[in-house]
Amino acid sequence: MFQTVRGMRDFLPEKMKVKQFIEGTCRKAFEKYGFSPLQTPVVEEYATLSTKAGAGEEIKREIYYFKDQGERELGLRFDLTVPLARVVASNPELAKPFKRYQIGTVYRYDRPQAGRYREFTQADIDTVGTDSILADFECIAITAEIMQKLELNFFIRINNRILLEDIAGLAGIPEKMIPEAFRSIDKLDKIDWQGVEKELLEKKIDKKILSFIKDNDLADIEKMFKENKIESKGLNELKQLLELIKEQKLEKFIKIDLSLARGLEYYTGNVFEVMAESQWTVCAGGRYDNLVKALGGRETPAVGISFGVDRLTDILFEKKETESIAKIYLIPVNKELALNALSIAQKIRELEINVEMDLTGKGISKNLTYASKKKIPFTVIIGEDELKNNEIKLKNMKTGKESAVKLNELSKLKELIV
Amino acid sequence: MFQTVRGMRDFLPEKMKVKQFIEGTCRKAFEKYGFSPLQTPVVEEYATLSTKAGAGEEIKREIYYFKDQGERELGLRFDLTVPLARVVASNPELAKPFKRYQIGTVYRYDRPQAGRYREFTQADIDTVGTDSILADFECIAITAEIMQKLELNFFIRINNRILLEDIAGLAGIPEKMIPEAFRSIDKLDKIDWQGVEKELLEKKIDKKILSFIKDNDLADIEKMFKENKIESKGLNELKQLLELIKEQKLEKFIKIDLSLARGLEYYTGNVFEVMAESQWTVCAGGRYDNLVKALGGRETPAVGISFGVDRLTDILFEKKETESIAKIYLIPVNKELALNALSIAQKIRELEINVEMDLTGKGISKNLTYASKKKIPFTVIIGEDELKNNEIKLKNMKTGKESAVKLNELSKLKELIV
C-alpha cells in the first residue's frame, strides 16, 4: 500500500473544508487592506534560498535540496518571504509600497513530530517599500481581524529587535555576542528562564540581560535609557506602534514581551508572535529591512506576518462542526427516474444551490446512509407520485420535517434550506 | 540577480487576480455538483508516481525525481490523479462514490516552450467508485458551466476508448498493435492525417483505421458493428452519455470525434477534450477504471476531468480587464492626518469594503499616480476641511465625479462604489 511521504499529510475533505475556510478568511482580511495576490513557484534555485540572512551551507540539511537533470541546484522553498524578496528585487517596476499576499505550501526537512510537518501552508502578507509603522500596524489589525473571525482566543506578543539590542548593550553584552544571546533568549518557550540562564553562562554572556527583560515594563526601560542617555530607535518604533494600537482599541489583544527575540536573524524592527488558545504559536512576523537587498535589489524596508494555516486548521478542526458541500441530496426511487432527477438537480443548481444526486441507482436506504455520512442537511426522494404532482418533497434530515415545493416554484428552496 | 527556476514562473498580482478568478469559478461549479475539496502533498514517493499504468523507469526523465537526505526516492507529482488514487486506495472508509476536487500545482520536466511550463496548476474533479455514465455527464455539464462563466468560446470533443479499440479491431489491427496505433492517432493535432498515415505505415499497421474514424459518423459505425455482429460496450457508453447531453440541451457544445485517443494509456471509457478559442486545449479527461487497483486499492471505476488553469489564465488575461483589489484609496493631505485617515479607513473596512490608504506620507499627486497605476477606482483625500465638516469626498477616478459622505453615514459608500 502506498503512503504519503514521511512528514507530509493529506487533507481529506472534512479537514480540507476547515483549511479552505481559514484560507478564505485570511484572503478576505488581506484584501480588505488592499493586499494583492502573488504566486511564486514551489521550486527555487538553491542560490536564492541560501541567501536569506544568516543562512549558509548548513541550510542544505534543513531543506529539500536536489539537482535536476540539467545539474541545476534547486530546492523547495522553506518560506514565502525569500521568493517575495526575489520578486521585488527582479521586478523594480512594481509600484511601491508593494503590498502582496501569498498563500502556499512551504517545505522543511525537520524531524517530523506532532503538529510539525515537512509540508505546511503559510498565508503571508508583506508590505515592501516603506518604513512607516502604519504598515506594521496593518499586520496587527489584520491578525486581530482574522483571529476574531476564526473565533479563537488569542493574544499578540510584541517586541522590537533594535530595542532588545539596546537593552543588551545596556546590560553590558558586547555587540558581537548579541546574536548568540538572542539565540538563547529565543528558546524561552522551550527551556524556561533557568535553562536560558544556564546557556548564557556556558556562552560566557552576562545574565543581567534576563532580569532587564523580565522585571521591567516599557516605562522602566524608557527611564533607564533616559538615565543612560540612550536614544533607542527601536523603542520609538515600538511606542509608535503601540500608539496606533491604542488609538484603534486593539490593546486588549496585545502583550508587550521584551523577551520576544524571534529566531530568524533578519528581523530589524518590531516583531510579532500570535498565541492561540493559550498554547499554540499560529502566526509570526516583523520588520526586516535587509532581505530584498541581499537578493540583489535596492535597499528596501519591509514588514510582514505569516499565518500557520496547518496549525490553525488542526485547532479549528477540533472546535468546529463542518458543513457539507452539498445542501441537498436527490434520490430517484429507481433507475428509470434518474433522468427526471437529473433535470430537477440541474434546475436547482441554476439557483446556485449545491446539489448532489445519486449516480449509482442504489436503494433508498443506502442512499440515506450515504447522505447522512456526508452530513448533507436536506434530501429529496423522487418517485412517480411526486413527478405526477409536479413537486418535490424536501426533507430536513435533522428535524424530519418535510416541505412540498412545486417544480415551477423551485426558487422557494432558497429560503427553505437556510 | 536571482531568477525563477527554468521553466517556472511567478504570477504577479495582475495575472494572479485572473488566475484566482478562474480557480474560484472552478471551485464554485465543482461544489455545485457536490464535489468536496482534497489536498495532497506536492511531493510523493517515487514508487507511487511510477505506478500509473504505462509509466516505467523512463518516467524518471519526465519528472522531478530526487532523493531526500534519508535516501528516500521521491518526486514532485506530475498530476493530481495519481495522488487521488493513492488516497482512495489507502482510505477504504471513504463513502463511495467519492467525489472530490483538487486545485494544485503539478510538475513535469518537459522542454520549456511558449505556453508550457514545468510548474502549472490543474483543477481536477473525479468521481471514484461508480461506473454510472451520469458521473461522466457531470464532467461535461461542469465543463460547460465553467467555460460559459469564463465567457470563452469552446467545444468539447468526445470519444470512447473501447469504441476506438473496437473500430481498430474492425479495421483489422491486431490487439497487441492497438496501443501503438493509438499513439500515432493521438498525434493528429501535431502531424495531420498524412503524418499519421506515414507513421502507421512505418509501424506496419493497416491505415484503414484512418478512413474508418475520419469518414464515418456514429450512425455509420453502429451500422458497421451491426453488420459485423460486434457488441461494443464503448459505443453504448458513448451513446448513453450523448443521450444525457441532449436531454440537458448541451449538445451545441459537443463534437463527437472518433479520432480522439488521449495520450495516456489508462483511459478505459469515454474521453473528453475541451478546445477554447478554437485553438487551445484547456481541459481533458475521461473514464479510467484501473488506476486505484494499480495503487493497491480495490477494483474501482472512476471518471474525471482536469482543467489547465495556467492556459486558461493566459487566455483570459489577454481578454479581460482586471479589477483592483482595493476599491477606495485614502490620501491624508499631510502626515499629521494619518491617524484620522486610519480611523476612517478602519470604519470603511468594517463595511467589508476593501480600502488601501497611503502609508508613506508622500504628496497628493504621487499618491494619485500610485492609485491610478493600481487602477483603484475611487480616491478620498482627507484634509482639515473635510474633518471639520465630518465628511469625506469620494472621487470617481474615471468620471471625476465627487460625492460627499458624512462620517456617520459611511454605509452609503456601499451604493456609491458599485
Give the gist of this structure.
Two copies of one chain form a homodimer. Chain A has 418 residues and is an alpha+beta fold.
Identify the notable features of this structure and list them briefly.
alpha+beta; homodimer; five-stranded mixed beta sheet; 418 residues; 16 helices; BirA Bifunctional Protein, domain 2; Rossmann fold
Domain module tally of chain A: 2
Query: Could you tell me which chain pair has the largest interface and how many residues each side has?
Result: A-B, 93 and 94 residues
Q: What's the helical proportion of residues of chain A?
A: 25-40%
> How many DSSP E strands of chain A?
16
Beta-strand share of residues of chain A: 15-25%
Task: Report on the architecture of this protein.
The structure is a homodimer of 418-residue chains. By secondary structure, chain A is of the alpha+beta class. Chain A has two domains: 13-319, Bira Bifunctional Protein, Domain 2 (BirA Bifunctional Protein, domain 2, 2-Layer Sandwich); 328-416, Anticodon-binding domain (Rossmann fold), CATH 3.40.50. Chain A contains 16 helices and 16 strands. An eight-stranded mixed beta sheet of chain A has the order 1-5-6-11-10-9-7-8. Chain A has a five-stranded mixed beta sheet with strand order 13-12-14-15-16, sandwiched between helices. Chain A has a three-stranded antiparallel beta sheet with strand order 2-4-3. In chain A, strand 9 (270-276) and strand 10 (280-287) form a beta hairpin. The radius of gyration of chain A is 27 Å and the shape is elongated. The first copy, chain A, starts with 12 loop residues before the first helix and ends with a helix. The model of chain A has no long low-confidence stretch (mean pLDDT 93).
